[in-house]
Amino acid sequence: MSEPTSGFSVSEEEVGERLDHVLASRYPEHSRSVLQRLAKEGQVELNGAPAKPNTRLKAGDEVRVGFPPSAPSSLEPEDLPLEVLFEDADLLVVNKASGMVVHPAAGVHGGTLVNAVLAHCGDELSRLGGEDRPGIVHRLDKDTSGLILVAKTDRGHRSLAQQIHDRTASRVYLGILWGTPRFTHALIDAPIGRHPTDRKRRAVAEGEGSRNAATELEVVEVMSFCTLVRAKLRTGRTHQIRVHCSHVGHPVLGDPLYGGVRQPPAELFRSTEMRTTWQHLLEAVGGQALHAAELEFDHPVTGERLHFEAPLPRPTLDLIDFLRGLGCR
Predict the structure, then answer these.
(1) One of 141, 154, 189, 321 is an active-site residue; which one?
(2) Catalytic (active site) residue 141
């Protein structure tokens, strides 16, 4: 088995789950394709023997994963705006701007959060996530703004990733949804899998490849034909909040993938000036009106419970003021 190795004991909630699904949950800093490749190469062991990705896990199972040495990185540091709310020897807490991709991927080779962090930290970043994702513990969608963790050390990375997996780290978002929900509080407990026809999207779906997903929603304020909500993640699936809100009929405003691009009520936008203002405000937000507003976790070394908040971006606040001015309908 390659070095360094990482391992874990199967938890009660993981019993019966497929090994590849659990690996994706345990090691969110690695892509599914990387983890599947490691399993095919015999670098994933179950109770001391090479394991198949589709193996169903049992109570008492022990899993070990061998991660190969990192390849040299081709990433370049870039002096980009970076709002750092906290930094010490082990981690950074960054308030990411909407429109910034977190790490390089297909078709995106620069201008990312990783490039900015490399310029800020130099080589002081964890490489557990791979050379193309130094320091990245979890992700935010490109057009979602707000708080994100970056690990500077491997020990910090392991601890933070484990806290996210175990749900002891808390992540809370603020979002503007279309319409007025019938609930003031709700728990959306619906599995998420790949969309059957669109590889860029996820969908609420049962069956092979789907994974349990749960989001807590709380109405903060009703504003005309939109609603400001507080969303707390119980799990961390790709596009989870966006998928769940669309599933209950209230997609995130401005979300092009999940039904958040709609026309407002005609009776409220009779003048050209109103329509123009509305379009300018949406363009300023730059995509889905979703913001990672709160982050809470235990420091990986001191154990101190840390809590951070990031205010909504100015374009989103301007949009909220505009909606408030229309009054509740």
Answers:
(1) 141
(2) yes
